[in-house]
Specification:
It contains nine helices and 14 strands. The protein is α/β, with parallel strands linked by helices and 270 residues long. The longest helix has 14 residues.
């Protein structure tokens, strides 16, 4: 049997609402790896957060990979190193932070191990709680960074029109250089132009010399759509955000709390 590669989002897909993996999902992943298939975590989270989850899930071993920052960084878990990385140029950090502050929007960026922000706000505390990270308030994120970051993240829970205004400013100001898209209703991802989970799916299949026809992807959020469309079989969770399922080849019967990822693995991988 030909070997397949399964790309899975974390939140709302592989993990339940308590940010844990169900026993059924864990069993299915273990069976897929036992049979020589590849498992790839594909997340908008920073690599440091994805690694914590991968360790908890037993996915730091042969056949396991991580797509972090929505495709900005790709990590080989068996080798313990990044194999691809794209970053936002450092010279753009200060003006982007300044515009976000002007609009009253929370904004943060990422070092290799921490979240950097210039204000201590509830949004960053909520984010690090969800992603098992730590954060640091710094006078200047640009000056605190020792290397260009893979992404910036703007968070606005209530004023959708304001964060959409910020998104439009980003797209116009950095046309052809940066992209800005939503991963949920409140999170605006700011990444180098062309960075998506879908592009990372294609890159990793090429890198591993696995035909795209042997790829399966699963997700639930707007930033998963490109990945769902790129893989040969694109799956949307039945608990997906509005507008996601229309792009899929298959919609799960079970949600993320009831072994939805296992359903995909048994149907399309094993």
């Amino acid at each position: 049997m030909s070997k397949r590669i399964f790309f899975t989002d974390l939140d709302g897909t592989l993990l339940n609402d308590q940010k844990e993996i169900t026993p059924g999902n864990q069993k299915a992943i273990d069976l897929a790896l036992r049979d020589g298939h590849r498992i790839v975590i594909a997340t908008g989270r920073p690599l440091s957060s994805a690694l914590i989850q991968a360790e908890r899930l037993g996915l730091i071993r042969d056949g396991c990979y991580i797509i972090a920052f929505n495709g900005g960084e790709i990590y080989d878990s068996s080798l313990g190193k990044s194999i691809s990385r794209k970053a936002v140029p450092l010279e753009f950090i200060s003006p982007i932070f300044a515009e976000a502050h002007r609009l009253g929007i929370h904004i943060q960026t990422f070092s290799a191990s921490e979240v950097f922000t210039e204000e201590d706000r509830p949004e960053v505390r909520d984010y690090v709680k969800r992603t098992l990270q730590t954060f640091r308030v710094v006078p200047s994120a640009a000056n605190a960074l020792t290397e260009a970051p893979c992404k910036l993240l703007a968070i606005e829970y209530e004023r959708r029109s304001v964060i959409e205004q910020f998104q439009q400013w980003l797209l116009e100001t950095y046309d052809g250089i940066l992209d800005a898209y939503f991963s949920n209703d409140a999170y605006l991802e700011i990444v180098p132009c062309g960075v998506t989970k879908g592009k990372a799916v294609r890159w990793l299949c090429d890198y591993l010399q696995i035909p795209l026809e042997n790829s399966i992807s699963a997700g639930d959020a707007p930033n998963d759509v490109d990945m769902i469309e790129t893989a040969h079989v694109g799956v949307a969770m039945c608990n997906s955000f509005p507008g996601v399922v229309e792009h899929s080849d298959y919609v799960t019967a079970a949600d993320n709390n009831h072994d939805g990822a296992a359903e995909i693995i048994y149907r399309f991988v094993l």
